[in-house]
């Protein structure tokens, strides 16, 4: 690890100037971090974070970017028109339509499958190292992040000399090359040339499609409400930390939080006073009655679904009540089967829903009503802790949580209570989004709520006290 100077100072760590094993930075929305490293390093990172912080959400692509595969042409992809390539257990898309089915080729992952259905492939093979990349064309290039003019000139000169014995491979100096000696750079180029030979030899010998060279992968690691609280407690052991430090930062008050903690660092006896003033300031932006509000329904695979916008109809300490209008209520309650897009779906136009969002709760309870006010059913969503965010500028307030897939539906007229989407919870464990322990806790919570609903307990009461902590 190579901590930033600020992190090194805070934790009393030695500052290191070498090439890091892993790159980590904050997500742009401050809901977690992004890490890039080899798979084995990412696995160690997620194991440590899960052991120290608990219920993090981890999203990794099925294939690592820059990985090189022996592929076999499967044929034309019906949706994109490009060529689908079997990589051995997973397939990718190659923007080339001239290949024959069954043909074996060497391909490299240019864009991983995170956020799309299949990884995008290329036949222009590069061999990436830590400070240099071998390019499939006879050129010498260098990272734009290397700013020193003298060092840029030296690297170009060195690259041209090395190019004389690399056959058709070109040289791309990465940022890390700036701090290494010429001998160290020559050694890495020689190692990469050996690697390229091994890759092409392995391609010839391997009988079936499969991995030839592992590239670096990336992980999107989300910190739900419960994890933010744990991070607050950990940080407070080292630095003056206000309550809800990480929540407030993700809500858009990073500068205000930094300023408050800077004062507390000089005047630690003022922690309670300054925290109360900060809370009072942020409270002005929290949702009030009649305010519009969004519900961010974040899926485990990273999709952020904004539900139908609602309006706040009641506010209580740590809870807001939201009313939303609908067109297809029956489908939401699974009263009808799922239909293809072209088939007309029975509507519930004029129906509405009342959602009770309790800050920190691991459930979100929504009652669905007909336009005449008759209760049609109740939906209990199992999720990470609910977070109620203040409005920022012109953006409305929002309720945010990560959906854990499994839910409970109660239909009073039918006397029917069901646990649904349990298979999606199992699939989330298989994809590595959550641990089996986390899934088992969500399953147990759903079963407890189901039993209480069957006893005739109302949904809010049935859900209360069933948290997974």
Provide an overview of this structure:
With 469 residues, the protein is α+β, with helices and mostly antiparallel strands. Helix content is 31%, strand content 29%. The chain contains 11 helices and 24 strands. The protein has helices at residues 5-11, 39-53, 149-163, 182-205, 225-236, 245-266, 271-283, 329-332, 422-430, 436-454, 459-463, and strands at 23-26, 32-37, 57-59, 68-76, 83-86, 91-94, 104-111, 120-122, 127-128, 132-135, 140-142, 170-173, 210-213, 217-222, 292-298, 304-306, 310-316, 319-325, 352-358, 363-369, 375-383, 387-389, 397-411, 416-420. It is globular, with a radius of gyration of 27 Å. The model is unreliable at 338-346 (pLDDT under 50).
Structural features:
469 residues, alpha+beta, seven-stranded mixed barrel, 11 helices
Brief sketch in words of this structure:
The chain is an alpha+beta fold and 469 residues long. The protein contains 11 helices and 24 strands. The protein has helices at residues 5-11, 39-53, 149-163, 182-205, 225-236, 245-266, 271-283, 329-332, 422-430, 436-454, 459-463; strands at 23-26, 32-37, 57-59, 68-76, 83-86, 91-94, 104-111, 120-122, 127-128, 132-135, 140-142, 170-173, 210-213, 217-222, 292-298, 304-306, 310-316, 319-325, 352-358, 363-369, 375-383, 387-389, 397-411, 416-420.
